[in-house]
Amino acid sequence: MNELQNMLHESVSRLFEDELDWDALTRYEKIEWPESLWGKIIEQGIDKVLASESSGGIEASWSDAYPVLRACGRYTVPLPVSEAILGQWVARQSGAELPEGIPGLLTQGFSIKESKFSLNKSIVPWGSRCSYYMAIHDSELFILEAQKQEVANQNNLGRDPRDRISGEARILDRFPTNLDNDSLLYLGALVRSIQIGGASAAALDLAVKYASDREQFGRSLAKFQAIQHHLADLAGLVASVDAIAIAACARLDRSGITDNQRNARFEIAAAKCRASEAVEKITRLSHQIHGAIGFTYEYGLHFLTRRMWAWRTEYGGVAYWGEELGKLAVENGGNEIWPIITA
Amino acid sequence: MESIADKLRFDPCQLPADLHLLRQEVRAFLTDELQEYSVVKRSHSWEAYDAEFSAKLGERGWLGMTLPKQYGGQGCSAFERYVVVEECLVAGAPTGFHWVADRQSGTLLTRYGNEAQKKEIIPKITAGKACFCIGMSEPNSGSDLASLRTKAEKTENGWLVNGTKIWTSQAHRADYMIALFRSDPDPDKKHAGLSQFLIDLKKTKGITPRTIENLAGGKNFNEVSFVDVELPADALIGTEGEGWKQVTEELALERSGPERYLSCFYLLRELIDVLKDCANPAILAKIGTQVAWATTLRTMSLSIASQLHAGENPTLAASVVKDLGCQFEQTLPGLAQELCDLEPTLEGHGVPYQQILGNLIQIAPSFSLRGGTPEIMRGIIAKGMGIR
C-alpha cells in the first residue's frame, strides 16, 4: 500500500471500528437510521474519495479507494458509502456536479421514452433515503429527481435497504458521458467484490480468534488439525477474493472501463464471479468453525455472513457474470482465452 | 485492526510493458515448433520429456534466464523467465527435460554450489543440455521428508551413499540428481543431520533406477537405489548439515510457479472449443467461473513472482497459491466431463479433446501429491497464521 492508501485505510478503519460495535450495528438494523455516522462520513469526505477536486474530492484512484471500500465490507457499514463513492467517480468521468445527499444508482428496472424516465420496481440501495438518482443511457449521465415516486420498502438479507421504486422521475440534469449503459452495473459489481473481500477477511479473523480461544477436549480448537485445515482453506479463499478485486481496481486505473479495447470489464467480471462463488464456502466454513455460537444473533458473525449472502447476488452473481465470461470464452475460442487473460 | 488477511496480500503486479514483445516471440516460436506434437503429449506439458525441444529453447536464450551471466546465464529478471514459463505451459510445450534444472537446480547451484560445479553445469542448464532430477522422497519418507534415511557417510575421499529414493521423475534418463541425504546419523538431529549432494548420474556407479509405471501407463518416475555409491568430497552442495534449510528454499521455488495451476489449461482451451455453439446459460456460467478462477490464480501467481523478484520470501503466499491452484487444476477434468458427454479416450482414439481429457482425468490425482500435498500446504498456512 502507498502512503495515501495507508492513511485512508487507517482513518476509515478507526472511524468504523469506533462507531460500529455490536450494539450500534444492532440498533441501526433494528431501530434507527445512523444519522450521526453518516454525518461523520460526509465530514471526513469519505464519500468523495473518488470525486473531482472541483466537487471537493481528492481525485484518488480506485486502488487508493480500495481500502476504504474494503473497510465498508469489513465493518459492515450500514450506509450507502460505496454507492456514494462510485457515484462520485461516475460524475468525475462525466464532468458532472452531483447534488448534495445520497445518490440512488439505477442499474435495472427503468425505461426512457422521449426523455422521460419511468421506474418500475427499480431496486435502489437506500432508495427511500436517496436525494437523487443516477442513470446512464446512450452516452448521457442523467441526474433524476427522487421525489413523488412510489416506494416499497424492502431490506436485503443484511437488513440494508433495497427499496423498490416505481413511477416517473424528472430529469434534474444531464451530462454527456463516455460511460456505457452498463457501467453502473460493472462498478456496482466491483465495489461489492471489494466489500465481500473485506467481510470475508473479518469473518476469517473472527474464526481464527474463536478457534484459538475456545477449548474442547482440553485444548483449543485451533490445535485440531481438522480446524487448522478449515482455517487454511478459508484464508486461501479470502486471499483469492481480495487478489482479483484489487487487480480489477489496478486495471480500472490503468485502462478505464470503456475507452480502451482492453479495459477493466474483464477483470471486474472475474472479480465478481470469483467473489460470489467464494461466498458460499467462506460463509459455510466461518460458521462451521464457530459452531452453534456463530448461529446466534448475539455473537454477530451474522452481520458479515448475511451481508455476504446478499452481496453475492447484487449487481450480478455467479450466474450472470459466469455466463458473461463463458460467452466471451466461447465467442473468442479456446486459443484466445489465454491472450485475453494476459492482455 | 490487525488482520490475518493482511499477511496474505497479493498486490497486483503489472509486467514491464516491453515483455509483451518477448511474449509474442515465445508464442510464435511455440506455435511453429509444436505443430507436429500430439495433443496428449501437449497435455503432459512439464512432464513430457523432449531433449531436442529443450535444446531449441536453450538456443533461444530461454533457459536459465535468471542465472548470472558469468556462468553462462542470461542475467534476466524473474519476470522474463515467468513469461517464457507460462507461455510454454499454456501451449503444452514438452518441457520435462529441462524443467527441474530451469526451475530450481540452476538457482540452487548458483546459491550454494562451488565454483567448479557452477562453471561446469550452469552453461549446460542454459543450453538445455542438462536434465536434472530431485532426490527427496523415500519409500518411508513422503510428506515427512525430514525422516529420510538414505545415508551419506564421510570417507577418506568423499562420501559413501546407501539407501533408496522414490518418485524421482526422469531419474532413468537424467544427467544429474540433487539429493538430500542423512549425513549425520545422530537421532537428535532430525533436520540438522541432512545435507544436499550433486550426483553426476552418467558417471557414478552403484545407482540403479527402476521405472515405476503410473496408472495411466506413463513411465516417468522411478525408485532409485544407492548401493555403496562413492561420491567425491565436493559433491556436497552448500554446507554440511544445512540441507534442510537449502531444501526449504528449493521447495519455495518448486511450489510458487505457474505450473501449479496451469496443468489443465490446455484442456480448458479445448473444452471452450468443444462448447463453442453452446447456448446453455448454466454451462456457460461454469466455463465462466473457470475463466474467473484462472484469471484470479494468474494474478496471485504473478504477484508471488514479483515478491520473489523484490527479494521477499513469500512462503505463506506460495503455499496458498499452490493449494488453490491445485484445487482448480485437479477439479477441471471432472468438471469438463460433467459439462460435455464426449467420452474420455485413450491416446489415438477420438477427437483431440477426448484424448486430452482421457489423459488428464488419469493423471489429475498426482497434482495434489507432487511438490507437497494440500495437507502439508495447509499446515504451512496454519503456521503462517500463527495457529500451529
Gyration radius of chain A (Cα, Å) is 20 Å
Strand line-up in the sheet with most strands of chain B:
1-4-5-8
Residue fraction in strands of chain B:
5-15%
β-strand number of chain A: 10
Q: Could you name the CATH class of the largest domain in chain A?
A: Mainly Alpha
Number of strands of chain B: 8
CATH architecture descriptor name of the largest domain in chain B: Up-down Bundle
CATH class of the largest domain in chain B: Mainly Alpha
The proportion of residues forming helix of chain A, as a percent range, comes to 40-55%
Task: Characterise the protein shown here.
The complex is a heterodimer of chains A (343) and B (388). Chain A has 3 domains: 1-94, Orthogonal Bundle (Butyryl-Coa Dehydrogenase, subunit A, domain 1), CATH 1.10.540; 102-177; 184-342, Butyryl-CoA Dehydrogenase, subunit A, domain 3 (Up-down Bundle). In chain A, 54% of the residues lie in helices and 15% in strands. Chain A has helices spanning 3-19, 22-30, 35-43, 62-74, 81-93, 183-213, 225-255, 265-290, 301-311, 318-332, 334-342, and strands at 103-105, 110-113, 116-125, 132-137, 140-145, 150-152, 162-169, 171-176, 215-216, 219-220. Chain B has 388 residues and is an alpha+beta fold. Chain B has 12 helices and 8 strands. The radius of gyration of chain B is 21 Å and the shape is globular.
